[in-house]
Amino acid sequence: QLEKQVATLQGELQHVTSCLATEKENSSATVQGLQSQLSEKESSVQALQQRLGDEQFLLLQCTVQEAEHILQDSLNRLEDPGHISCTSSADYLLSRTQEASDATDRLQEACRKFQLDRSDIGELLCAIILFAHLLGDTVLQGSATSHTAPMESADLLFEICKQCGIEALSCLSFLKTEASLVKLEFAVLRDCLSRIAAIGEQLRPKGLDIRQDELGELVDKEMAATSAAIETAALRIEEMLSKSRAGDTGVKLEVNERILGSCTSLMQAIQMLVLASKDLQREIVESGRGAASHKEFYAKNSRWTEGLISAAKAVGWGATVMVDAADLVVQGKGKFEELMVCSHEIAASTAQLVAASKVKADKDSANLTKLQQASRTVNQATASVVASTKSGKCQIEEKGKSVRVGKSVTEGTSEAWRLEEETL
Question: Which residues contact 74 (CB under 8 A, 6 or more apart)?
Fold first, then answer.
């Protein structure tokens, strides 16, 4: 009996052992299968991560390429003849230079973060585009400011702005490869921005020997004087037009009416721009002064205030000079080219006033929109003055040719009659 039990137990033991061996084999196969799947998944994840990294770096390269186009466009515009008529104020240049410097700091910080964590590239892409936009604008504003600066300062400012644009492009080139990214430095670019700011400070309006608490009153006086100068200029144009209608006829009257009519439209457009500028300045003061008085606000923001004063003076002076040039042209004593230059100069002066006015404005301000629309109207009116002046010049020259040809024909006919009489 005992032997049977032993045999039975041995049989069960063999069966259990066999089952365990089978289970072990199955488990081993399962583990191997799972390990194989895990390896495949890890390889797949690594491949996806590599692909993501490659696509992110490709996106970085595309963004850098677009940023280079923005900066290169600004550098190309420096050589554009049409850019010569563009002007800006030293105060606006200083504000843009500061923003460009801040954008440079932001790009440097974004590069540092990207080198530590390559998984998030969004901040770097945004920093690159902002950097290109503000550096490009600083280059253009610096060049535009140089157009109204003394020759020595103008040449130096132009060259530094050009160098600044080139250095900005150089900085972007370091973002194109992972190897060069770690070598990116901004020291030379920051030096260019500092030099631009230094020249901008030198070009800021000087000679305002008044106390800061009087700046507010001076702004009001200069804006009133500008409005008076424009009104006087408009009246003078009306007087010239009346005088021309009384004493001139034919082509001369037609030319004078067209030129003086366009000058009148320009003066009206400038009047609207000055009014819009006053409204925007009033809004800026009211929104920014808090519990302070108007005088305290102007004193606290003396740089902005002095920029307004300088711009207002330039507009009033430009109106007077343009009317003087128009008067000489109508009398036949002046050059058409001088009138065209004067119209461009007064348009540049109004652009300076717009730039100075909107430095502290809210970008969503209705008064700012109104001022920008008035500025576009001034530009259109300026173009009309130039067009009518060119047309008038051509008409006068054609008339002169006709008179000379007619005179030559008459003289030739008289000479022929005289010779015929002598022959007879």
Answer: 135, 136, 137, 139, 140, 165
Report pLDDT for 208.
47
Q: What are phi and psi of 86, to 5 degrees?
A: -85, 135
**Chain CA centroid to CA 227, Å:** 28
DSSP letter for each residue of 81-133? GGGGG----HHHHHHHHHHHHHHHHHHHHHHHHHHH-TT--HHHHHHHHHHHH
CA dist., res. 314 & res. 308, Å (int) = 10
State the helix-helix crossing angle for 122-146 and 90-116, rounded to 10 degrees.
160
Q: Are 193 and 164 in contact (CB under 8 A)?
A: yes
**Unique residue bearing structure tokens 């007064």:** 346
Q: Where are the extended beta strands (E) located within 250-308?
A: none
The alpha carbon of 205 is separated from its chain's Cα centroid by a whole number of angstroms, namely 22
Cα–Cα nearest to 94, from 240, 279, 303: 303
Q: Which burial class, exposed, middle or buried, applies to 81 when counting CB atoms under 10 A from its CB (0-12, 13-18, 19+)?
A: exposed
* 315 vs 165: CA distance, rounded Å: 31
Task: Please give the C-alpha separations between residue 209 and each of 206, 213, 300, 306, in angstroms, as whole numbers.
Answer: 8, 12, 16, 11
Contacts of 241 (CB under 8 A, 6+ apart): 256, 257, 260, 261, 264
Amino acid at site 279: D
- Measure the CA–CA gap between 200 and 178, rounded to whole angstroms: 37
Distance CA 206, CA 219 (A): 15
Q: Locate tokens 């974004």: which residue? A: 110
Task: Say if residue 104's pLDDT is above 90.
Answer: yes
pLDDT(402) > 70: no
Task: State the CB neighbour count (10 A cutoff) for residue 306.
Answer: 23
Which candidate, 180, 198, 13, 1, places its Cα nearest to that of 90? 198
What tokens does 82 get? 């049409």
Mean pLDDT value across residues 349-355 = 79
Q: Is the Cβ–Cβ distance between 358 and 281 less than 8 Å? A: no
Q: What percentage of the chain carries pLDDT values higher than 70?
A: 88
What length does the chain have?
A: 424
Q: What is the pLDDT of residues 12-31, one digit of tens each?
A: 888 888 888 888 888 888 88
Rounded to whole angstroms, the Cα distance separating 363 from 280 reads: 11
